[in-house]
Amino acid sequence: MSANGTPSFFDLETAVEKVADTRFLANFHETWGIAGGTPNGGYLMAIAVRALAGTLEHPHPLTVTGHYMKRSSAGPVEILTERLGRSLTTSTGLARLIQEGVQRTHFTATFTDFDLATGKSVVHATPPDLPPPEECVEHPYVEGKSPKFQELIDMRFHPTHMGWARATPHGVGEMAGYIRFKDGLEPDLYSVLMFADAVPPAIFNVVGATGWVPTIELTTHLRRRPAPGWLRFRFTTRLLTRGFFEEDGEIWDSQDRLVADSRQIQKLMSPKARA
Amino acid sequence: MSANGTPSFFDLETAVEKVADTRFLANFHETWGIAGGTPNGGYLMAIAVRALAGTLEHPHPLTVTGHYMKRSSAGPVEILTERLGRSLTTSTGLARLIQEGVQRTHFTATFTDFDLATGKSVVHATPPDLPPPEECVEHPYVEGKSPKFQELIDMRFHPTHMGWARATPHGVGEMAGYIRFKDGLEPDLYSVLMFADAVPPAIFNVVGATGWVPTIELTTHLRRRPAPGWLRFRFTTRLLTRGFFEEDGEIWDSQDRLVADSRQIQKLMSPKARA
């Protein structure tokens, strides 16, 4: 919801309609298309998790895993969910996202109730060390070239992490900065799932901006609902082995609290395969 | 297989029998029981992945995610698998592990063919910095107290990482050392999946040995088949938030090559819940 109580564009573009106990309909909006029109993987995850929230007993996603098997495209999608099991404090289920009768992506998630999470906290990490937002570098939105959703999201990068965009990557697989919606919509658990996959890949600062690096599997752990204001992110890649690499992420809120950690495995396409 | 070509105890105790196209039977051996007899989560993953290897077209697990919903116990298990999708270089499927008619755990995996992985490698990490094995500390096996599988595995820990076992944790969530089978069986992809969950939790070096810390979700990325010899592991926990924490792992082989990276989310049980 936006500040005035009307659904925000993000709520509207990730909305699901429950048409049976475990069947939902939704629509992939072209806003979220990246390479070749395939919707962003975090956007697909947010939609799948809305369907799971309408299926499982606990209210908040704790860990969500997406498997990205086939390209999706803008347009209608059918979501079939299934309850897999529950305990006193968690419930687990899966969601299949189907277009034109073919399952494209697959999500498995465990939900909990963060309002009942009263366990111990010991955090041996800090938010990314960043200059103030006005000294960070905005990612330029280029009409007709950038994914449209980048026009809706304010991303500001650590000044030394933008070398990839000038073909001078600094050689370290890191990408840190600030992120929020441009229209003032405050972050929630669903937008955090999307933000966790919305930033240019950290590996671009190692190998350059090679183009699309498809996600094979992405897991995001959510830790709490974010406070209003800027989120700060840090994504790192250290381990590129024979074309496969991980990307680790952390997202922190304006009160210096961790709201999510993520890890995905992606494939660096060879020049031959891209040709 | 052991060096003389006969099946090793690990091969035998993770074996699955295919009884239909997507139905397998197996047996959880009591050797692998931890707290309350629940089999080790990495052991369950190795069995699930054997069933998936008998289901999917590609030969090698690349990323495997387990959701641990209910306790399993020693005894027979039925495994139902399903093919979810495939591309030229990967195939994805799921496996349900069922005991007494109830699904206890759920696995989702993407397989590939490592023999065809010819992409670029850039590794900005090194194996854990360890003294030689003979200067590391063996984890003492205590009859009737330690899980039986610890009698079969040679684990040697960095000398400064064993404080938890003497009730003097050093305060940093790390656990690094060497690991191999005691009987000379060389590691393979399946044993690496098990090793990735076989070491005492790194969080014990922060909060002490609190007892069982159940895994909610565990994802392991495999990178290559390991070379013979010692494996080296490094597990770290930095982010304990209201009872939930991640554990990140890396496993390196005797040729200094990364063979796996893992991340799980676990729950630190409150003293009340353990009583």
Key features of this structure:
homodimer; mainly beta
The gist of it:
The first copy, chain A, has 275 residues and is mainly beta.
Describe this structure in words.
- The structure is a homodimer of 275-residue chains.
- Chain A has 5 helices and 15 strands.
- Chain A has 275 residues and is mainly β.
- Chain A has one domain: Beta Barrel (Porin), CATH 2.40.160.
- In chain A, strands 1, 2, 3, 4, 5, 6, 8, 9, 10, 11, 12, 13, 14 and 15 form a 14-stranded antiparallel beta sheet that branches.
- In chain A, a hairpin with a 2-residue loop joins strand 5 and strand 6.
- At the A-B interface, strand 3, strand 4, strand 5, strand 6 and strand 7 of A face strand 3, strand 4, strand 5, strand 6 and strand 7 of B.
- Strand 7 of chain A pairs antiparallel with strand 13 of chain B.
Radius of gyration of chain A: 18 Å
Overall geometry of chain A: globular
Q: How many strand units of chain A?
A: 15
Largest sheet of chain A: 14 strands, antiparallel
The domain count of chain A comes to 1
The CATH homologous superfamily of chain A corresponds to Acyl-CoA thioesterase, double hotdog domain
Oligomerization: homodimer
Biggest interface and residues each: A-B, 58 and 58 residues
Strand content of chain A: 35-45%
Share of helix among residues of chain A? 10-25%
CA distance, first residue to last residue of chain A: 43 Å
Topology:
The structure is a homodimer of 275-residue chains.
Chain A: H1 9-13, E1 16-20, E2 23-28, H2 41-53, E3 60-68, E4 75-86, E5 91-99, E6 102-112, E7 122-123, E8 137-138, E9 153-157, E10 174-181, H3 189-195, H4 204-207, E11 215-222, E12 231-236, E13 239-241, E14 244-252, E15 258-267, H5 271-274
